[in-house]
Amino acid sequence: MPPGKPNRENRQTSIGLSCAVLAYLTWGISPVYFKTLAFVPALEILMHRMVWSFLFLLLIIIIFKRWRPFKEALTNRHNFRLLLASTILVSGNWFLFIWAINSDHILQTSLGYYISPLVNVLLGTVFLKERLRNLQIIAVILAGSGVGYLTFHHGQFPWVALGLAISFGLYGFIRKIAPVEALEGLAVETLILSLPAAMYLFYLDYLGVGSVFRSGVHIDLLLMGTALVTAFPLLMFTIGARRLQLITIGFLQYIAPSCTFILAVFIYKEPFANVQICTFIMIWLALVVFSADAVLATCRSGQAVPSTLSKKTTLSIKRS
Known about the structure:
mainly alpha
């Protein structure tokens, strides 16, 4: 092995770890950003997010000369149909996330993204005929028990958390089978909705009820900045995922819901009684079991699988 190779590998790993952690931290504290837009209707925020994200991603595609794969993703009929379905799911996921943040349901968003990896396992079992290992079965049972306990004792079904987890899981499943990279795929998704989104925003402006250009320059900049909230962490994740192992990415993904949990309980003072405590304990135990299973599976394989930007790695972990 050349003398400089270990140093280069260590440097690349450090860069990857820094970028991945930055991505998950950005996703985790994003509720703070959307809270500053709480007086703007969630649907209007979503439309701005679609329009400005597409313009920003288009600029990135031009700068990094990714026009050809973007065009291929847009013109391939099979891929476009898959991306059309994923667009519907991601737009629903984004809308529910924004609505939940601005309706004081941040704790449920945290719960939803804690559950999400387990939903991915169930989807793989149902649609891809993957077999659950024993520890995975235990993890799913623990998570299901936590949700059931919250529903039974709190008297309210956690539909926000499950809605986020299921829509995100289905989105990840579709993007897993669609042979399109993350950047180009998200650009196509935002393109699909950017035209109707722009029309809706122009309509609001025509009625005189739109927020942009009426609520101050800082609000205009925040609405435009939803593009950065969308694209920046994705680009950081892309850089990190190319340089890290799958098992590392698997552990790092819990940073985001943990940050959201801290914000909900300690900053925004959302109710966190014994019922919620017991539910989260069950979910956390499920994730410990789930992570232990992932470590054991990696050890049994006898090799460290590099986390290249495969569809499975990038798209099953990508956040709102």
